Amino acid sequence: MRLRCEHQDGPVWRIHLEGRDQSEVTLDGEGLEELDALLTQAEQAPHCRVIVIESRPGVFCRGMDLAYVLAHAGEDLTDRIRIYARTMERLRTSRCATVCLVDGEVQGGGVGLAAACDAVLATERATFSLPECVLGLIPAMVMPLLLTRMPRQKARWMALSSRVVSAEEAAELGLVDELFERSIDLERGLRRVLKRLLRANPRAVARLKTFEQSIAHSRVAQGLEDGAMRTAQDLLDLETIKAIRDLLSGESPPWFARYKGGGR
Asked: 183, CA 20 to 30 Å: which among 95, 166, 216, 244?
């Protein structure tokens, strides 16, 4: 897998996954290390607000690079496999909002890549499947990501059956957030999503993601108490008070940004 990143001078970074030598995209160690480094770079760029992950039409990602696995049969691949886990965690916890565009087939680790993002936008021809059990494996790194989005039993059956899940069903299960008929509709839908995301205070985006993770396993009462403390602290922030005053007077907060990137 190779990467191409567009608009690194703006608030929206578009990361394109590309296969090597015109082949379909698979997740190999070098490509994942490059993605991890790019995510780190985006984290450190104060102007980066949204990361968009996309791939070629028709096939988004085939998952693990099985040719590499066969070429290194019998070797301990722990370090290379951990690169996927580290990269998915970096994507999942990024201070930036993350959006995945799916316009085709997704398998194995590619499903986890999509699930790790804050929003998954897909066309009606998108499909999702976990073929690991057919190979004698289990989707051990994908399951934790799936369980943040869909019911446990549904995720288990998806893995056990290795069946292909349609885009419509994936939307019903929570794996897809917004569904579009065609590729051109997907791009238009992305622009609407970006317009909304670029109106959010980037510090609030980061705080929201951190807070959501902190209360993930809390009881409701504890979550409400933590939420009260968080809100009280936020209302002491002068930037927040100024934004409230600006909005009430019909002005836009200073963090409002526009996406000027072109279509595909």
From this structure: 95
- Please say whether the beta carbons of 4 and 53 come within 8 A: no
Task: Specify the DSSP element, H or E, that contains 182.
Answer: none
**How many residues belong to the chain?**
264
Which CATH fold topology does 2-197 show?
2-enoyl-CoA Hydratase; Chain A, domain 1 (3.90.226)
3-state secondary structure of 242: helix
Q: Please work out, in degrees rounded to the nearest 5, the angle formed at the alpha carbon of residue 199 by the alpha carbons of 198 and 200.
A: 90
Backbone angles phi, psi at 232, to 5 degrees: -60, -40
pLDDT in tens, 172-185: 999 999 999 999 99
Give the Cα separation of 25 and 1 in Å (integer). 6
Helix (H, G, I), strand (E, B) or coil at 193: helix
Burial of 160 (0-12, 13-18, 19+ CB in 10 A): exposed
Rounded Cα distance, 156 and 123, in Å: 24
Q: Which helix (H) or strand (E) holds 253?
A: none
What's the pLDDT tens digit per position in 91-105?
999 999 999 999 999
Report CA-CA distances (Å) from 237 to 50, 97, 203, 240: 23, 22, 11, 5
The secondary structure of residue 263, as a DSSP letter, is -
The H or E element that residue 16 is part of is strand 12-18
Where does CATH 3.90.226.10 sit in the chain?
A: 2-197
Residues 86-145 pLDDT 10s: 999 999 999 999 999 999 999 999 999 999 999 999 999 999 999 999 999 999 999 999
